């Protein structure tokens, strides 16, 4: 009990310092718990949506392995269907109470009276649905009435609110069947959740005509069982009546599980990413806690000596420090769990802003969440405190009383430096091996090894680098401040281990920022070079949300004036069989012989234009080599859903695939010979060449022709480069935002280190004040010390990040990212930001140092 009381007394006595360390635990645990609660809530919400909407048995078109799913979009713009006759067959099955035909499609565009696309700007689709009793399970008519005829439609309330839509307003709906004018008759509220899409509800028969172009088909059949009939039993009866060759027949549980599996990958990815950043902040927090307890132990050396002198054992001293850490971990974890709930609610609000309304009433807090938070927080804190506790226990009573420290620390420091430098050298070697790897798999393993070894190696050897790097920084930054700058430099150099640990915490976050910046900048530079070298088209035409281009929009592009050539590119899924009867599945870019004029795809053999004529095909070199194919070889081509196989001749072998296409190509004429017109895939993009000297006129004509299709975007080469830069930039900004969590924890470490250092140097500060050092000079000294420590961490982090990013770029060069670009603007911004961070981190410690009473400070032992 004496040990416990001592630990409690020390914990309370140093509560200010513990608060900063506790914040590191709190932030990290909060992010872990918030992530778990948020993803669990999303999963539970969608589970409820699937459960409420599912009938006892669901019948859909047959799906091949890995096909279909919650967010599947048809390449033809027409979803797969089941015939209406199947509904009549099912109605005759014993035990069936009701059969509801479902019609739904994502291949539509809705335009309001101001010619504005009412679809989401977040990338979510616009979905057309037939309004049936089935929809009332998850939604209700909040205002107006349900559609009663082909010219009427309802919209979901979120879309109505976002786009200022009112009952009676006219909408144009563009689909594969044409342009349709409808009037809004009602507004629909979701009783569970709005999945983020813009949803339009049509009268059932109108939905068939607008979305499918047929009145004798549905996308799905929902079968409700009569009382007393089980789902499995009903499934067997329905399967017996229909057969299973052309249908996918599932019970409600199977339907729910399939849909859950489809979105589980998205949720899992999101959870792993968020937990990964939480893990980084935990790693950074370890440095903070190690530093805190190391300095507290050092400051209590005399107290520890007295405890040992009066009979306290090493084990008791060891336990005393660990009990303080346990208290810190418990308090930080409990508060972190509470803060995590706030983070989860905040993430839900963010999703609401993006269109997916999640209710806090559905907040799902599993029993495991607080347990995981507590285990993570306490374990990390105890691990971080283990070394300081062990060091405290190993100090002998006599050494402690005369504050000599442990002579073994010097030997341990040398050994740590040697091990660290060895690991750093090995890690750099692994990064070089990653950059020179011949395959992505091998290179990836070398890269992972190199990142791990260099990180650990630099952390271990950081104290040894303090003298060299800090003196160089001081020569540039501090010497101009005279004696104040020299004192700041001396203070930063005083304890290399402490300075190294503090800087290492900042180094980790900044290394990731620098490394990802190199990759992102290189990606943009590589794509820009690819566009300059390969793109011959003057204009690229695509939809804003990367959906297929609908037929009317494609015809509008072709009708534009001042164009010498227009080419569309789509995609088909096919099976190819060689003369040796070896078969393989391949996605084929589908286009016309004019494509090489728009996009230069280098070939190693043959002619690309010939490959795009009737009976030809082009394959990438690696695929041709894998199957022993050469120009002139014949293959059997079987396009999915075609009338049958056809023989094609390999007329071109291309180099590695470019950024825009799969690398394998087929001519439209060949596909059209085995596919019905409605089976031809819609283009994902179109390319256009302007007539000589008519570039501006051609663009104006394109934009005028597409005025009725606001979902379409016309870009020239400069616009396309800017689009790529924006997309990569948005991704990097999101990553930087998440990494800010780790950097905040690192800043807390700088504050904590400075605050403890000020306490440690209380007597020294009093003496300096007594001989004439002013308050403002003292504050400046602490601020300069903080800035130089922050910049030291920045130097290490940027150097490490550049090494990581360079190795990653060399590895990604195997996939076409061949340009290495250094983001100098980002690096300069990082250094300026580090200086500002160091300046801000010193505010409280500097203020405390300046406010010390001179006599009390001198009298401090």
UniProtKB/TrEMBL annotation:
Ranges in a coiled coil: none
GO terms under cellular component: plasma membrane
Domain ABC3 transporter permease C-terminal: 277-397, 738-854
Residue ranges occupied by any MacB-like periplasmic core domain in the UniProt entry: 20-240, 499-704
UniProt keyword list: Cell membrane, Membrane, Transmembrane, Transmembrane helix
Classification via InterPro entries: ABC3_permease_C, MacB_PCD, Macrolide_Exporter_MacB
Localization terms from the record: Cell membrane
UniProt membrane topology term: Multi-pass membrane protein
GO molecular function, a single term: transmembrane transporter activity
Transmembrane regions listed in the UniProt entry: 20-38, 269-298, 325-351, 363-387, 418-439, 445-478, 499-519, 731-759, 787-807, 819-842
Pfam family, one: FtsX
Family: Belongs to the ABC-4 integral membrane protein family.
Protein name: Putative ABC transport system permease protein
Organism per entry: Streptomyces aidingensis
């Amino acid at each position: 009990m004496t040990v416990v009381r001592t630990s409690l007394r020390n914990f309370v006595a140093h509560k200010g310092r513990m608060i900063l360390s506790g914040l590191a635990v709190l932030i990290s645990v909060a992010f872990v718990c918030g992530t778990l609660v948020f993803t669990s809530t999303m999963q539970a919400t969608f589970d409820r949506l699937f459960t409420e909407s599912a009938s006892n048995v669901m019948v859909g078109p047959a799906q091949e392995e890995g096909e279909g799913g919650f967010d599947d979009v048809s390449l033809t713009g027409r979803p797969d269907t089941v015939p209406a006759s199947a509904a009549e067959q099912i109605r005759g099955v014993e035990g069936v109470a009701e059969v509801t035909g479902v019609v739904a499609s994502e291949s539509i565009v809705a335009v309001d009276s101001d010619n504005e696309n009412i679809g989401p700007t977040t990338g979510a689709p616009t979905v057309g649905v037939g309004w049936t009793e089935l929809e009332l399970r998850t939604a209700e008519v909040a205002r107006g009435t349900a559609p009663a005829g082909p010219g009427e439609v309802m919209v979901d309330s979120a879309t109505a609110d976002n786009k200022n839509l009112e009952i009676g307003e006219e909408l144009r709906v563009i689909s594969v069947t044409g342009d349709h004018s409808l009037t809004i008759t009602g507004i629909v509220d979701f009783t569970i959740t709005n999945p983020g899409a813009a949803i339009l509800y049509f009268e059932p028969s109108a939905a068939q005509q607008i979305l499918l172009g047929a009145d004798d088909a549905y996308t799905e059949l929902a079968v409700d069982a009569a009382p007393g009939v089980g789902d499995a039993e009903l499934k067997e009866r329905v399967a017996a009546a229909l057969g299973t060759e052309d249908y996918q027949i599932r019970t409600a549980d199977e339907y729910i599980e399939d849909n859950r599996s489809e979105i589980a990958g998205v949720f899992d990815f999101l959870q792993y990413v968020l937990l990964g950043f939480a893990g980084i902040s935990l790693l950074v927090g370890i440095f903070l806690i190690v530093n805190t307890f190391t300095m507290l132990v050092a400051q209590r050396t005399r107290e520890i000596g007295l405890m040992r002198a009066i009979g306290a054992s090493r084990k008791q001293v060891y336990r005393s420090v660990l009990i303080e850490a346990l208290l810190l971990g418990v308090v930080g974890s409990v508060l972190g769990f509470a803060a995590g709930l706030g983070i989860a609610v905040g993430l839900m609000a963010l999703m609401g802003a993006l269109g997916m309304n999640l209710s806090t009433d559905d907040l799902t807090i599993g029993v495991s969440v607080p347990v995981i938070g507590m285990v993570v927080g306490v374990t990390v804190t105890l691990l971080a405190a283990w070394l300081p506790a062990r060091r405290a226990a190993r100090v002998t009573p006599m050494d402690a009383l005369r504050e000599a420290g442990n002579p073994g620390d010097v030997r341990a420091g040398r050994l740590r430096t040697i091990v660290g430098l060895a690991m750093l050298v090995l890690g750099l070697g692994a990064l070089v091996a990653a950059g020179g790897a011949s395959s992505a798999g091998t290179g990836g393993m070398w890269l992972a090894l190199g990142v791990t070894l260099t990180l650990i190696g630099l952390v271990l050897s950081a104290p040894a680098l303090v003298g060299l790097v800090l003196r160089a920084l001081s020569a540039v930054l501090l010497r101009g401040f005279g004696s104040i700058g020299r004192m700041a430099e001396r203070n930063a150099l005083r304890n290399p281990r402490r300075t190294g640990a503090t800087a290492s915490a900042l180094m980790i976050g900044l290394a990731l920022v620098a490394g990802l910046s190199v990759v992102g900048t290189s990606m943009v530079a590589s794509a820009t070079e690819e566009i300059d070298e390969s793109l011959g088209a003057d204009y690229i035409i695509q939809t804003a949300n990367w959906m297929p281009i609908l037929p009317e929009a494609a015809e509008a592009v072709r009708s534009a004036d001042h164009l010498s050539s227009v080419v569309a590119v789509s995609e088909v899924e096919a099976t190819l069989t060689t003369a040796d009867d070896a078969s393989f599945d391949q996605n084929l870019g589908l286009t016309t012989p004019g494509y090489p004029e728009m996009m230069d795809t280098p070939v190693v053999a043959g002619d690309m234009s010939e490959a795009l004529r009737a009976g030809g095909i082009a394959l990438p070199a690696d695929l041709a080599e894998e199957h022993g194919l050469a120009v002139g070889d014949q293959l059997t081509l079987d396009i999915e859903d075609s009338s049958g196989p056809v023989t094609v001749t390999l007329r071109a072998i291309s180099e590695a695939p470019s950024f825009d296409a799969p690398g394998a190509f087929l001519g439209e004429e060949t596909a059209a010979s085995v596919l019905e017109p409605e089976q031809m895939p819609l283009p994902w993009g179109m390319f256009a060449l302007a007539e000589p000297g008519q570039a501006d006129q051609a663009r104006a004509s394109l934009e005028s022709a597409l005025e009725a299709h606001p979902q379409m975007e016309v870009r020239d080469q400069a616009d396309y480069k800017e689009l790529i830069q924006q997309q990569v930039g948005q991704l990097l900004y999101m990553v930087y935002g998440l990494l800010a969590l780790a950097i905040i924890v690192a800043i807390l470490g700088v504050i904590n280190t400075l605050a403890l250092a000020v306490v440690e140097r209380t007597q020294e500060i009093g003496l300096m004040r007594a001989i004439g050092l002013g308050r403002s000079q003292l504050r400046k000294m602490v601020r300069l010390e903080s800035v130089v420590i922050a910049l030291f961490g920045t130097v290490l982090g940027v150097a490490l990040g550049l090494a990581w990013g360079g190795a990653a770029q060399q590895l990604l060069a195997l996939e076409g990212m061949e340009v290495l670009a250094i983001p100098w603007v980002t690096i300069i911004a990082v250094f300026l930001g580090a200086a500002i961070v160091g300046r801000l981190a010193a505010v409280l410690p500097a203020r405390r140092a300046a406010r010390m009473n001179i006599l009390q400070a001198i009298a401090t032992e």
